[in-house]
Amino acid sequence: MSATVLIIGAGGVGGVVTHKCAQVPEVFGRIVLASRTEGKCRAIAGQIERPVETAQVDADNVPELVALIGKVKPALVINVALPYQDLTIMDACLATGVDYLDTANYEPLDTAKFEYHWQWAYQDRFHDAGLTALLGSGFDPGATNVFTAYLAKHVFDEIHYLDIIDVNGGDHGYPFATNFNPEINIREVTASCRHWEDGKFITTEPMSLKQSFTCPEGVGTYNIYRLYHEELESLVKHIPHLRRAQFWMSFGDSYLKHLEVLGNVGMTGIEPVEFQGQKIVPIQFLKALLPDPASLGPRTKGRTCIGVHARGIRDGGKKTAFLYNICDHQACYAEVQSQAISYTTGVPAMIGAKQILSGNWRKPGVWNIEQMDPDPFMADMNAYGLPWTLLEDPDFDLA
Ligand code: NDP
Fold first, then answer.
1. Mean pLDDT of the region 301-328
2. Ramachandran angles phi, psi of 275, nearest 5°
3. Residue environment code for 88-112, b if the CB has 16+ CB neighbours within 10 A, otherwise e
4. Which of 93, 95, 320, 348 has a 20 to 30 Å separation from 173 between CA atoms?
5. Alpha-carbon distance 190 to 351, whole Å?
6. Confidence band (pLDDT; 50, 70, 90) for 1?
7. What value does the mean pLDDT take over residues 367-395?
8. How many Cα atoms occupy the beta-carbon half-sphere of 229 within 13 Å?
9. Rounded to the nearest whole angstrom, what is the distance from the C-alpha of residue 379 to the centroid of ligand 1?
10. Any residues with CB less than 8 A from the CB of 321 and at least 6 apart, and which?
């Protein structure tokens, strides 16, 4: 089995997915990389020894997508453009009869929502067409959902408290830069916080709760802040017995200080403002000023630690576990010319694609990744660059 795959989006994540698919020729026989700017596709293709075809496409435009998919005839489209393009790419996959995978849920341009209902509404159409759509196959969402499914399957009888922890211990040397698309990143961290407790989502001020977390393996001690993250919405639906589910991310003091000032002066706004006869969206202008996340690769040092901390019961007794991956920015750069944030997203995208193409996860309908059997994905994380460690009843706890 060796299939044609069409990757859409030639940013930081698109580069990693293309590199990683190229490393598995027995599954990804032909690779086509398309994006809004074809030059970026060519630059990525130029880093890879195997031939990678490139194309230009505006993924907001369904007829253009349909024409491209019709020409390339892929078995699967991997969508690593921006969340704004999810629905148009899903529409094009339905029109052409091709399976679909992404790493982030759909968002309308004018509201930072992070909700799955737009994509879940495609369930019947994908099911009836016999097509698979796999949502959220990055790291978080993605590997963190699979980690949770793995813990629920193998380690716990019931998970009661779930805390997803995303620490980036990397340093790029800039006072302020974002590790992935600045617009998406800033929309995420400035949105109201929501966490799940006692059967409902509770909304609190953005970043209003923090605690200190010491990562295993000497990655370091960081302040982690509670914020809303999209995988919470699907996990509380699909993992039974959860009493509370929260998401935590580390931020340095310099990042937070800059973000506060930028927010105070209106630079993180998503509403267009009139400037010298032109409409400008402040956050898009800010994105143009900030370092391109793809350029951070060579200068980022340190490691990430992303994992799932769970508390619950096993065989009638209390059980705690922390399941995590540690990833080294410089090692990622040496392998695929990208820092660890794009790497930890792009590798699970390739692994999710591999599960669909190999038939392990081909199932008509629209699925969040925790609805699939975690075992083949977990095995592939160890095989393709994101090895994980399970600490059962670790000697630390969370607040
Ligand atoms: P980038 O901004 O680096 O790359 C996005 C790419 O998509 C760019 O090449 C851009 O083209 C292209 N693009 C944007 N709009 C269009 C369009 N209309 N038509 C065609 N191509 C388009 O983002 P990242 O690589 O950092 O992120 C990619 C995706 O991964 C995002 O959806 C992000 O939310 C998600 N992500 C998921 C994570 C997870 O763990 N689940 C973590 C990090 C990211 P151009 O170069 O011309 O601008």
1. 98
2. -140, 115
3. bbbbbbbebebbbbbbbbbbeeeeb
4. 348
5. 31
6. low
7. 97
8. 26
9. 27
10. 151, 155, 156, 309, 310, 390, 391, 392, 393, 394
Query: What's the 85 CA to ligand 1 centre distance in angstroms?
Result: 9
Across 259-280, average pLDDT: 94
Give the residue from 276, 327, 288 showing the smallest Cα distance to 305.
327
Task: Compute the residue count for the chain.
Answer: 399
How many Å lie between the centroid of ligand 1 and the Cα of residue 13?
A: 7
Least confident of 24-33, 105-114, 263-272: 105-114
Residue the block writes with tokens 């090895």: 387
Q: CA 46, CA 69: separation in Å to the nearest integer?
A: 23
Among the ranges given (66-75, 164-173, 175-184, 195-204), the one the predictor scored with the smallest mean pLDDT: 175-184
Ligand 1: residue of 78, 80, 187, 308 to mutate (most ligand atoms within 8 A of CB) is: 80
Q: Give the separation between CA 226 and CA 215, rounded to whole angstroms.
A: 16
**Nearest Cα to 70, choosing from 28, 98, 45?**
98
Supply the pLDDT for residue 295: 85
DSSP-assigned letters across all residues of 326-385 = EEEHHHHHHHHSS-HHHHHHHHHHHHHHHHHHHTTT--SEEEEGGGS-HHHHHHHHHHTT
- List ligand 1's pocket residues with C-beta within 6 A: 9-14, 35-37, 40, 57-60, 80-83, 85, 103-104, 138-142, 180-181, 184, 293-294, 342, 345
Residue 314 confidence (pLDDT): 98
Q: Report pLDDT for 182.
A: 83
0.90 exceeded by the pTM? yes
Q: What angle do CA 286, 189, 229 make, to 5 degrees?
A: 135
Please name each of the domains of the chain with its CATH number: 143-337 (3.30.360.10)
119 in Cβ contact with 368 (< 8 Å): no
pLDDT band at 181 (very low <50, low <70, confident <90, very high): confident
